[in-house]
Amino acid sequence: QVQPVESGGGLVQAGGSLRLSCAASGRTFSLHPVGWFRQAPGKEREFVAVVNFSGDLTQYAESVKGRFTISRDNAKNVVYLQMNSLEPEDTTVYYCAAGPIMSIVIDTYLYWGQGTQVTVSS
Length: 122
Description:
It is built from no helices and 11 strands. It has strands at 4-7, 10-13, 18-24, 34-39, 46-51, 58-60, 68-73, 78-83, 92-98, 111-112, 116-121. Strands 2, 4, 5, 6, 9, 10 and 11 form a 7-stranded mixed β-sheet that branches. A 4-stranded antiparallel β-sheet has the order 1-3-8-7, with no helix packed on it. A hairpin with a 6-residue loop joins strand 5 (46-51) and strand 6 (58-60). The relative contact order is 0.32.
């Protein structure tokens, strides 16, 4: 069983940076692709970024490409989302999830964290 836990959210000014972490127990976490998603109140959850199990393949939503970087450290069982040049529109709850395949489709992910709030002030 994989149980992801997000951390690193907070309040930052526009143009600033945050690094989110997704940690999980269990040796199988390193075998799963991991994605980051976000969901604003009243909106559907949307894909942000995904990394494959080994960390050498990544994919990003157009809205964050060039600003966000996903990476992982399998020795520590952690996946990171480095967020730079943050905009007020990035304000929402961010979730990480692990699944059997590398995908931008939310329904393919089996294990979800509880989310971490990111607030970007203008």
